[in-house]
Amino acid sequence: xxxxxxxxxxxxxxxxxxxxxxxxxGFPKSEVYGLASQMQRAAISIxxxxxEGQGLKQTQAYGRHLAIANxxxxxxxxxxxxxxxxxxxxxxxxxxxxxxxxxWPHVGRAAKKxxxxxxxx
Length: 121
Hints:
Number of helices: 5
CATH architecture: Up-down Bundle
CATH topology: de novo design (two linked rop proteins)
CATH class: Mainly Alpha
Structural class: mainly alpha
Distance between the termini: 21 Å
Largest sheet: none
Shape: elongated
Order of helices and strands: HHHHH
Number of domains: 1
Radius of gyration: 15 Å
């Protein structure tokens, strides 16, 4: 069984964390403990839950943690939309967000795969 660092979904989620930290650097100082912090926490939750679920070495637990990671991803998407509507994202950051967003379906697909009922059970 592979470790969490070998999982493509975990690697993509880690890339997302770095992208979010870079993105929030440019936010107004008034958002340091507000939206920026919330986005960072949501982003960190994604690979953390993937790693925790993988570490439990149980398919059902892994699926549950992937579902939580997927929920955090939806939360982060909403927060990025809020940041954009508030005018916190430059044109360059919007392009970077779109590029980063292309990697996100890995989390959703993985969550759906493990959430599907097991025909053998």
